[in-house]
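Components:
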Amino acid sequence: MTADTEFDDRLLATEPDSTRHLEVPVARHVFPNADRPTTTAGTDASVARLEATGLNAYFGQQHAVKDVTLTLDPRSVTAIIGPSGCGKSTLLRCLNRMHETVPGARTSGSVTLDGEQLYGDGTSAIAVRRHVGMVFQRPTPFPTMSIRDNVAAGLRTQGSAPSRAHIDDIVEDALRRAALWQEVKDRLRTGAIALSGGQQQRLCIARALATKPRVLLLDEPTASLDPSSTQKIEELVYELRSTVTVGIVTHNMQQAARVSDRTAFMLDGALIEAASTNTLFTAPSDPRTEAYITGRFG
Amino acid sequence: MTTGVMPRSTRLNRAKRRGVSGMMVALTYLAAALATLPLLFIVIHIVKLGAGAISVDLFTKMPQPVGEAGGGMANAISGTLILIGIAAAVGVPVGIGAGLYLAEHKRTPLANTVRFLSDVLNGIPSIVMGIFAWQLLVRPVGHFSALSGGVALGAMIIPLVTRTTEEMIRIVPNSLREAALALGYQRWRTSLSVILRTAMPGIVTGALVAIARIAGETAPLLFTAFGNQFWSTSLRQPIAALPLQIFTYAISPYDEWHSLAWAGALVLIGIVLIISIAARFATRSRFGAAVD
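Structure:
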C-alpha cells in the first residue's frame, strides 16, 4: 500500500478510511482510494449521487443548457432524451467537466458528486474525470495501442502505476464487466482497431471502467452501431447499474425505455421533465414531453 | 450512343468532349513521364560512370594524393553520416516540438508568427544557412568544425519537420483527444502519449524525408564543416563530407579523381535511397493500420 500513496493526489478532498471493503480484492492494492467515500461517514462505498443544480452551459454567446437541475441516482441508469441540438450531450459533458475543453465554452451553476463540488475551487477537472468516466458516440480506441493497453490506458495517468500483474487483473476485470472478455482474451496484445465497431465500443466502456469511476456517462453510445451490437451494449448498461451510476444520452426513446430507471426530457436547452422511466413514457406531466414521445416532433 | 433519340448537336458535343478528354489524359501521362525522366537519366548516368569505381577500397581507404593508384572516401562517407546525425539531433526535436505547438495552438498570434517564419526559413537559400552557422559557431571559435556543419544542416531540417509534424497531428481525430481527456489525462500527457504517438509514423516519415533532402547539401558545408583530407570524427574539427569531396574531385583536372567523384555521387544517392526506403517502412504503424 505504501507505494500507492501517490495515487491521485488531486483526489477530491477525502478522508482515508481503511475499513471500507472492496468488491474486487486486487483493486485494494491498486486503487486504495477508488471506492473511498468522499463525504459523510457511513456512506456506502458504491453510492455515487451526481447532482446538477441550476446548471447553465454556454458556447460563446450560445446558451446551450439552461438552468438544469437533475440528479443521477446511485445504482440506477438515468437516460436523457430530446430532439437533436437540445443540449443533452452538452449537459452530459458538463457532468465530467469535458464541456470546458471546447474553446469558448463555459458553465455556471453547481454539480456535486456525493455532495462534493465538481466545479469548486481547487478541484481539478482531471480528478473529476477520473471519477466520472465517459464513453462517446463513436468508438475511440487508441489506434497505436493493443487491446490490453487500451483498457489500461487510464491507469497510467495515476501517480504510481500499478504493477504488471495488477494491470492484467484490472484489464481482465474491466473486460469482463464490459462483456468483451470472452471475445478478446486470446488476442489482448493485438491492435484494438482490428475489432468490430461494437467490440470497439465495449472496449471503450472497459477502458472507462478500468479506472473504477463512480459514475459512467454514455453519450449516444450506440448511435454508430448495428442492431445486434446495440443490443449487447444495452444489456451491458443494464448490468452496470449494480456497480456504477450511469447517465446515458440517447436520441432513441425505445432505448431509453429499455435501459433506464429514470428518464429526463430536454428541449431547447431546458430540462422539461424528469421522472421514472415508466411514468415519463406512460403518464408525462408536461404536454411537450407527451408531444415528443408520441412522435409529434423531433 | 446511336439510339437516334439524341439530337444531332448532342452527339457532336459528345464526340468533342471525348476528344478533349483523350487529349488531356495523354497530356497528364506525358507530364508524369517528364517528371520521372530526369531522375531516370541522372541515375543511369551516375551508375554508368560511377559503378566502375565502386570497390571495397572506396568505403575503407582514405583519399590518395594525385598520381597514386587506389584510395577511397572512407572519411567523407563517415563524415556525411556524422553530419546527418548532428543535423537530425538538432533539427528533428526542435521541428517536432514546434509542429506540436502549432497544431495545439492553431490560431494564437505566436503560432501564426511561428508558422510564417517557418515558411520563410524554408525558403532561405542553403548557403545563407551556412553563413548563419559560420557566424554562430565558426567565427567565435576561430576554426571550422563538424558541429557547425551539422547545425547548418539541422537548421534546414527544422521548417520541414515543423510543417509535416503540424500536418500529421492535425489529421489525428479530435475524438481521440477527447477520449484521453475523459480518461483523466492531463493535457500534456494527451498531447504526448495519444496525439503525438498516433501521428508518429507520419512524423518519422517527414523527418526522414527531410534528412534525405539535406544529406546531399554542399553549400551550407563550404565554410562550416569545410572538408578534411584526413580521418576525423571529432565534432570540434573540420570534417570531410561526400558532397564536398565530390565537389573537390569534380573540379580537379585528374581523370581518376573524376571517376571517384562519380562513385561518391553514387554512394550519396545510395544513402538517400536507403533513408527514403526507411521512411516508407516507418509509415506502417505497429498494428498495420494507417492513421485515420
